[in-house]
C-alpha cells in the first residue's frame, strides 16, 4: 500500500502555518529542522498548529499524535494520514 503524500500547494500552506506559529521565516524551516530543538516550540505552540490545521486546512488531527509534530516531514505525513482527500495524486 502506498503512503499518501500532500500536494505541493498543501505542503506550502503547511509550511506557512508552521512558520507563522513558530514566528519564523518560512525559508528558515528545512526538512531537517526540529520545531522543538531549532525553534523552541512547546506544547502550546503545537496545540496552536493543530488549531490552525483544522481552521485553515480543514484537517483535524487527534491530539494524541502531538509527539509526532516535530519537523516538516512528520507533519506532512500526519496531515496526509488524516486528510487523504486533500492529498496529491
Top keywords for this entry?
mainly alpha; 52% helix; two-stranded antiparallel ribbon; 4 helices; 89 residues; globular
Please provide a written account of the structure.
- By secondary structure, the protein is mostly helical.
- The chain is built from 4 helices and 2 strands, in the order E-H-H-H-H-E.
- The chain has a two-stranded antiparallel sheet with strand order 1-2.
- The relative contact order is 0.23.
Portion of residues in helices? 40-55%
N-end to C-end Cα span: 14 Å
Q: What is the strand arrangement across the widest sheet?
A: 1-2
How would you characterize the largest beta sheet? 2 strands, antiparallel
Q: Find the structural class using helix and strand composition.
A: mainly alpha
Q: What order do the SSEs take from the amino end to the carboxyl end, as H and E?
A: EHHHHE
Using the CA coordinates, give the radius of gyration: 12 Å
Low-pLDDT segments, ≥5 res: none
- Report the β-strand fraction as a percent range: under 5%
Number of helices: 4
Oligomer: single chain
Q: How many beta-strand segments?
A: 2
Mean pLDDT: 86
Shape: globular
What would you say about this model in short?
The chain is mainly alpha-helical. Helix content is 52%, strand content 4%.
What order do the helices and strands come in, and which of them pair?
Layout: E1 5-6, H1 8-22, H2 35-39, H3 43-57, H4 72-82, E2 87-88
Antiparallel strand pairs: 1-2
